Amino acid sequence: MYQLVQFLTRQRAFILFALLEVLSLWFFYSYNNYPSAIFFNTTNRYAAQALETSNSIKEYSNLRDVNKELASENSRLNQLVSTLQAQQLSKSVTNYKADSAVAARFKFVLAKVQNLTTTQFNNYITIDKGSADGLAPGMGVISSTGVVGKIKSCSEHYSVVISILHSEYSVSAKLKSNNEIGSVKWEGVNPDVVEMTEVSRYKIVKLKDTVVTSDFNYVFPPNIIIGYVKKVGVKADQTFHDIEVQLATNFHTLSYVYVINNKLLNEQKTLEEKSGDLKVK
Amino acid sequence: MTSKSIFSQVLVFGFYLLLQIFFVRQLVLFDYAFCFVYIASITLLPFETNRITLLLLGFFAGMSVDIFYNTIGANAAAMTLIAFLRPSVISLLTPQRGYDERQTLSLNSMGLTWFITYTVVLTVIHHFVLFLLEASDWGLFLPVMAKVICSTIFTTVVIVIIQFFRRD
After folding, report:
1. Which of A26, A147, A223, A229 could disulfide-pair with A209, CB 3.0 to 4.6 Å?
2. Taking CB atoms and an 8 Å limit, are B34 and A119 in contact across chains?
3. Chain A interface, Cβ < 8 Å to B
4. Do A25 and B73 touch (CB under 8 A)?
5. Is B22 at the interface with chain A, CB within 8 A?
6. Considering only alpha carbons, which residue of chain A is nearest residue B63?
7. In chain B, what residues touch A117 (CB-CB under 8 Å)?
8. With a cut of 0.85, is the ipTM above it?
9. What is the pTM of this model?
10. Which one of A10, A121, A124, A155 makes the best mutation probe of the B interface by having the most chain B beta carbons within 10 Å?
């Protein structure tokens, strides 16, 4: 017994070291696997407030870019309004009419970026809206220029977003010109380029084609821009194209984002789960 | 150690942490070189600091930085490791005549070669653990090594430059 105590006192530095290492690795892996279970991130109120203060200084230098992006978004929206009005007038050919609840199922919440990284292997963005504004983990996030990511965890007034620049995040996407479906994922190195896979090599892929979110998507409305085809290649033994996509969103100057609240998401999911046995896939 | 020098050590420790969290966090060169200047909060503590204090401070510093980087645990693990290895590195690097009683752990008193070797060794260990944990994928080994090398140079240069502004 005495020897044991003596051993423990002699090795106390090593024991403490081992304990702290185990503790940090436990934090690290549990944060990656059970995100909402942990409090220590930038949704922590004090951390977020500190970031907000330091950010308010940086904001002024970004105003020019932000204005430009908002202006171009305005013009795009105006364009869209006019097209929609025109369609309404000429009455569509089919008899399909979306239920008003379905047509208006997406609600957009504007939020300001408090903190973001682009150069780590797993990038996150902190925004200044949280559960108090109706946000919840799993909701999609876009900017005026394109897809940004998905909410990972929320506190009352802040949320952390998994950016599309994250090694474990992929988005269902399609090519605008021929509606080919694939999925978009980040390779982990260049923050301006993502990879699109699962497009059959026998289909034609045009350079500069627009890549948008597909219709088979819980978090994003269809046709939100992800990026533009930059390079097309095929690996020798693969049946899929290897497409490099230039991201439409410039993550370096990202300042304001919209969080998409799909009000009918739960209804759709429950229905699909209920009929899950019947699904043929 | 007098209470005055403890107080100034606390100030220095806090200075490196705040510098890291509010200023250097945004600083990335060519997407590969990161600056983790807060390593100095542990590496530059006085020679006589005991191991337990080193470990606890290292863990605390790593955790604080992790909160702001959203990498909870990664920096803490790396910092705890270098806090644990620091005494061994110091004794490995003992100059031929041994350490002088009155020497402090700074660039002025230890000389450029010793100081840079010491900083580089601990920085490489820290960066290697940190980036490898973050990547969690051996397929990314080459980008990880590139980041480790570029960041080590960047961090070391910044730590050395700050040394030139010390008053002692």
Report:
1. A229
2. yes
3. 12-14, 16-17, 20-21, 23-29, 31-32, 38, 40-42, 44, 47, 50-51, 54, 58, 115, 117-122, 124, 126, 160, 167, 188-191
4. yes
5. yes
6. A24
7. 69-70
8. no
9. 0.63
10. A121
Contacts of A12 in chain B (CB under 8 A): 52
pLDDT in 10s for each residue of chain B, 168 residues: 567 777 878 888 888 888 888 777 767 777 778 888 888 888 888 888 888 888 888 998 988 888 877 778 888 899 999 998 888 888 888 777 777 767 777 777 777 888 888 899 999 999 988 888 877 777 677 888 888 888 898 888 888 888 888 765
Question: In this complex, do B136 and A121 lie within 8 Å of one another by their Cβ atoms?
Answer: yes
Other beta carbons within 10 Å of A165: 30
Distance from CA of B112 to the nearest CA of A (A): 30
Structure tokens at B89: 């590195």
Task: Give contacts of A119 with chain B, Cβ < 8 Å.
Answer: 28, 31-32, 34
Number of Cβ within a 10 Å radius of residue A167: 18
CB-CB contact of A45 with B108 (8 Å) = no
Do A245 and A196 form a contact (C-beta atoms < 8 A)?
Answer: yes
